[in-house]
Amino acid sequence: MLPIKVYRDGELELPQSIMTIGAFDGLHLGHQALINRAKSRAEIYGVPFVVYTFDPPPKVYFQNQSLLTPFAEKEKFLRNMGVDYTIVASFDEHYASRSVGEFLVELRKIHPQEIWVGPNFYFGKGKSGTTQDLNMISKTFEQPVVRCSKGEVISSTRIRKLFQGNEADQAYCLLGRQLTNE
C-alpha cells in the first residue's frame, strides 16, 4: 500500500476531488461510515479522495478533552482506509480565528465535487460556518448519525466517557477495534 500523502492546510491543490472534513478523533464507527461513504463517491467519480482533519482536534484544544487518537495513529488508520490525501491543520489560536471565507478559499484550491461532513458540522471562527456555506463551493452532504446496537449515538464524547468509566471493552467496540493487552 502506498504511503498516504499528508499536507498542511493551504498546501494541497487538485483539479478535482471528493473530500470529507472532521476532527476524526477516535476514528470510531461513525467516522468510518462517513469516510467510507465519501471514499465510495470518489471511486464512482474517479477522483482523489481527501480527508481534511485537525491536530489537535478542536475539542482537545478548546475543552482540554483527552485525545483518543494521536495523529501518527490516525494517519496509519486513514492509509489503511484508502485515503489518497490527508490535510492536517495545526489547530491553534491562529487557526481557530480563521473566517468562514478564508476556509472556503482554501477548499476551492482542492476543487471538491462533493464535501461530506458529520452531523452538526460547523467551521470557522466561533463555529459561524455551516453546510450552507460549504454548498457555495460544492455539493455538501451530511452523514446521518451512526448508532450502536443499543440505539445510542456513537461519538467521541461517548467513547471518552466509557474510558473514564472503566468500560474500555464498550469503548473499543464503538471504535471498531479489539481491546489489546499490550
Structure description:
The chain is an alpha/beta fold. It is built from 8 helices and 6 strands. It has helices at 29-45, 58-63, 71-80, 93-96, 100-108, 131-134, 156-164, 168-175, and strands at 5-8, 17-21, 49-55, 85-90, 112-117, 139-142. Strands 1-4-3-2-5-6 form a 6-stranded parallel beta sheet. The longest helix is centred in the N-terminal third of the chain and has 17 residues, at 29-45. The radius of gyration is 16 Å and the shape is globular.
Which descriptors would you attach to this protein?
single chain; alpha/beta; Rossmann fold; FMN adenylyltransferase activity; FAD synthase; riboflavin kinase activity; FAD_synthase
What's this, in brief?
By secondary structure, the chain is α/β, with parallel strands linked by helices. The chain is built from eight helices and six strands.
Global Rg? 16 Å
| Helix-strand sequence | EEHEHHEHHEHEHH
What is the CATH C-level name?
Alpha Beta
Number of helices: 8
Q: Strand order of the main beta sheet, please? A: 1-4-3-2-5-6
Helix percentage range:
25-40%
CATH superfamily: HUPs
Main beta sheet strand tally, sense and closure: 6 strands, parallel
| Quantity of strands, as a count | 6
Briefly note the CATH topology name: Rossmann fold
CATH architecture: 3-Layer(aba) Sandwich
The shape, in one word, is globular
How are the secondary structure elements laid out?
Blueprint: E1 5-8, E2 17-21, H1 29-45, E3 49-55, H2 58-63, H3 71-80, E4 85-90, H4 93-96, H5 100-108, E5 112-117, H6 131-134, E6 139-142, H7 156-164, H8 168-175
